[in-house]
Amino acid sequence: MKPHGKGRWESLYFDYPEFEAPARDGLAMRAPVTIVGAGPIGMVAALTLARYGQPSVIVDAKHTFNDGSRAICVARSSFTALQLLDVLGPFLDKSLPWASGRSFFRGRQILEFFMPDSATERHRPMYNIEQQYIEKFLHDGVAANPLIDMRWRTECTGVAEAEDGDGVALTLRDPDGPYEMRTDWLLAADGARSPIRSMMGLRLAGQNFEGRYIIADIQMENPVPVERFALFDPDARPGSTVLVHQQPDNIWRIDYQLRDDEDEEEALREENIRAAVQKVLDECGYDAPWELEWWSVYSANTLLLDGYRHGRTIFIGDSAHIVPIFGVRGFNNGVLDGVNIGWKLAWHLAGKAEEAILDSYDHERRRATLDVIEKSEKSTQFMTPRTRGLAMMRDAALSLALDFPFASQFANPRNMTPYEYHDSPLTLPDAEAWDAGPPPGAAAPDARLDGAAAPDARLDGARINGAFLMDGFGPGFTVLAFGDVPGTGLLEEHDLATVLRLPPEGEAADVYGAGDGDAVLVRPDRFIAARWHRANGAAIRSAITRICAGGLQEDGE
Amino acid sequence: MSDRDRNVDLEAVYAALAEGIDAHGPEHSEMFLAKAALLLAEALGDEDRALRAIADAQRNMTGMRRPD
Fold first, then answer.
1. What is the pLDDT along chain B (68 residues), one digit of tens a residue?
2. Does the residue B50 lie in any domain?
3. Which terminus of chain A has fewer Cβ atoms in its 10 Å neighbourhood, N or C?
4. Which of A392, A404, A407 is opposite residue B31, by nearest beta carbon?
5. Is residue B35 part of a domain?
6. What is the pTM of this model?
7. For residue A441, is it left (φ>0), alpha (ψ between -120 and 50) or beta?
């Protein structure tokens, strides 16, 4: 919602572009992949496909980006993906990196937390940036890419598996009226209220939590370090939880819980938003003048589809799963969806992988969502206790945390590292023991190749001098070969993988727990597929072949 | 090995809990007892024994009849 007198697309900091529908003349009526929804996740999927040479069509009924700052926390895993997609530059220039936060109970600090970080990583654990910029920067990449056919003001009003078995039949409608189109594959990236999900008669299953939150953005000059504030039971809103985040362009997000006895409609009135925000700012000791930009309300739901793949239709992002906002996992989880299905579909379309590889998308990403839900239920129960008992214990813990550090750990946000695909059919478990390093299924970590980064540059990833390991990763599979690994030339000859030959000692070897003769196989989405002691090219080649066949592990069935 | 070998003056603990309940009244006793339970569990340093104690505390809550 917007202040009185302001239009939906009037913003203190962002100019919404106005997009037109493409001319109908010469428009392709057949596509290998059609993506419904030009939100961040749909665009990530299109950019991933294009990264591997596969064209796609994106359709979206809207004429501009989503309004409001929405998802503002971008995790390191998403920056890794944006780097893979060659669109990272503007994100680094615009966003605010942060790695710490503080929690308060009734006005007293009970916790200062630091997210796991390491100088061996190019990117910081978290960056804040408004979703309009996320969409703009992704769209700049989409618009510049000849493989992506972006159709704004184009609504998908019908979807059916074609009766002749030849792909999916779509009914689209633009300002010139309806038209029919065929697509071999359909990616539903049409958001939490997904019309495609409804048209296919599918429903999300899960829990609706009671908690309702208001998010309000203001613009305020307030030069303080970037960190997250959580206020439990503050004087400004007794019995409620408040979060404060800083965003670029002097925008601040005030995020506060409505008590059960508060009327939502009343709380959303502009004068009540203003009064609530002022009280929070007073409690934080911020006395600068401010302007109200935008506000909205949400509830903390955990919902997901039983299956993410339905024939030739695959659900990605919020259309497949809804998770509570304070886990900062809705957007970041969706990005991993888009990259995951993107490379697998691209490999299949290029004839390099069997269709079975697509089922591993459901396997990996549904489990990732379930893991997110489990973690965010713990956060949710702490932020929004649902029963008298949970509320009592929460307050008991917070009250203890004023004096005893052990009790403050309840208020620590759960770890935000990506879910690890240990039991995925694409993951090869260790055949021999490894003493250290990330196991197969984990996200590949970065490492400095020359160890030259200055310590004070840690919060300024864009300007770190010196090469990082991941800069050398290929667009496809990457093999990290430590010391003497025979036979890797064959992987390059057959264009199966990029081989990085690394010294058996040094930062990369330390980070991966690797020594002379070891090798690590990294997938295109930069997760570890397998690792070997005394590796050789033939074993690595065989692993790639089996991944592309859709599975390394025997299914128990 | 046995807890009874250790020097626990349960009479003093009993009295301190009673004093705390009296001091905080019906409105805040629950919170006081919840905090005491968390602190005791932390001091005990044994999740299984803490959970067993919490389960044991829930026996015979109404009247004096045994639950089984």
1. 445 556 778 999 999 999 999 999 999 999 999 999 999 999 999 999 999 999 999 998 876 554 44
2. yes
3. C
4. A392
5. yes
6. 0.91
7. left
